[in-house]
Amino acid sequence: MTDTLHSAFVELAAKSPGATAVYAEAGVLTYGELDQRSRELAERLTAAGAGPGVPVGICVERTPDLLVGILAALRSGSCYLPLDPNYPADRLTFMVQDSGTRLLLTTPASRAGCPPGPTVLVLGDGGTVTTEPGAGPVPVVPEDTAYVIYTSGSTGKPKGVAVRHGGAVAMLAAMDRVLEGCDLSGIAAASSVCFDMSVMEIFNALCRGGAVVLVESAVHLPESRYADRITHLNVVPSVMNGLLDAGALPPELRSVVFGGEALRRKLVDRTFRETGATRVFNAYGPTEGTVFCSFGPVPEDSAEEPTIGPPTEGARVYVLDEQLRRLPAGTPGELYLGGAGLAHGYVNRPRTTAERFVPDPFRAGERMYRTGDVVELTDGGELRFHGRSDHQVKLRGYRIELEEVEARLTGCPEVREAAAVVRGNRLVGYLVPAGDAPDGPRLDAALQSAVTARLAVELPDYMVPAALVSLPALPLGPGGKLDRNALPEPPAADPDGPLTAPGTPTEIALAEIWGQLLDLEPSTIDVQSAFYDLGGDSLLLIRLARLMTRRFDRRVRVPDLFSFRDIASLARWLDDDSGATPEVVQSARRRAGARRAALRGRSADDR
Fold first, then answer.
1. Distance CA 199, CA 187 (A)
2. Which structural domains are found in the chain, ordered by start?
3. Does residue 591 surpass a pLDDT of 70?
4. pLDDT at 590 over 60
5. How many other β-carbons are positioned within 10 Å of the β-carbon of residue 94?
6. Looking at the whole model, is its pTM more than 0.85?
7. Cα–Cα distance measured from residue 502 to residue 510, given in angstroms and rounded to the nearest whole number
């Protein structure tokens, strides 16, 4: 049977146990090895209480154990809840508590960052856990939940989307037909498991006889020991531009799927011209519709801008007006989704589920999902994307509700009011500082650092604003609502202003690294200018953290670079033998340490 997300893998493992299933820096696994380890772990999970409707948290670094854990959760009858060990502790704790997760899989390397609460099973080096074997796996049916993925929430809190096995299987079947003829023998798994693109990457390989090539992120592709195994890549357009600039695409790459951002003809042409790819696809879909609901090839010889493809097989798409009436081709309207890929809804949010998953007026007794995206249907039956009808944005493929960022900003004691928008490739926060001053409120550099540092321990990296702008008041429209279009551009650095050149050995070393990444002469870099102000972006920020770690023999993470945004503050931090951090970061780390200590005591009792 192939009616559940993992069943095709089980059948393939029985037929071809010696075929390679996973390539990773930490090791290589065959289908037989992955099958055995996940089956044994599933038995132990079942003995610990796993089963249909029971989420199993997966807090594991990007090693083969990550796939062992995901498959084991599915084979036990449970759904899996991906938990990125690099996420802020408060966010992980919220996801676990909100979802009702009672079991959590981790490894010795990631255990310290696990949230408190669930029973913790620790994977060993061989992929086993520290409990005794139990009963066999529980049967799973298509309507059971396969996974829960948390997306940014408009209420200020992330919300979990519960996706059905049947929806995931339907998506993979639709991908089979569109990708027919592509070489899927090595699929790069570069997306975070906290995003649903990872479902396609992992299971399009494991359910079709290919291999998963695990990498930390798309930025790390050129460093992968197994880059020459990659034949297929799913990627965000802005990331692809960076990889092309660096000449860092895998040599055996033959097909590329774009998604998460608007795709332009210029990038399509460049992909065909500068890589070995012979087929390029563009795709669209919210998590609530199970990865992709439209998907299609982009022709090589065309002057037209790409569409987001035709609807995938099994998906129902409606372009409707405000009265839920169908709109003719060429007329923009809101996109509604129905069909095989529709998710169950939001975990523990019946009101939000009812607001977004509404009755389908064209199919009695069925539902459709209101996406908030504005599209038009072309005469050829494809979808053309126009934008959003609300304040949700996509930035480098990440889905962000601006209201969640604004809620975190206004939660800072230094801030009275806040707004957030995307400017170019940057998320920008606008703040009205708390307190009164004779000449109006101000948010000086120290307070900006404190606000940014606080956000860095509350939000994932991609949701922390790259720039903060202080305003005396937020601009309002005639109805008294925030006028986002009236928010000013972040002030640019004055090219004629005085330059504070690198002076100390550490500042000089940092300027050399920044110059290398930003294509600037180190001597022209002002040590008080922020990385983003000089042309940096999130893709370069990841590379910056990696280069600094190597250069200074001290672990540097992206959140650290949000806390210390210019060379001067970075140099002081690096030169401080104590590794001092802003007080808000120290406080958050003390709280996390207390949680970890409590967790260690509780998990020891559990065993």
1. 12
2. 401-486 (3.30.300.30), 505-576 (1.10.1200.10)
3. no
4. no
5. 16
6. no
7. 9
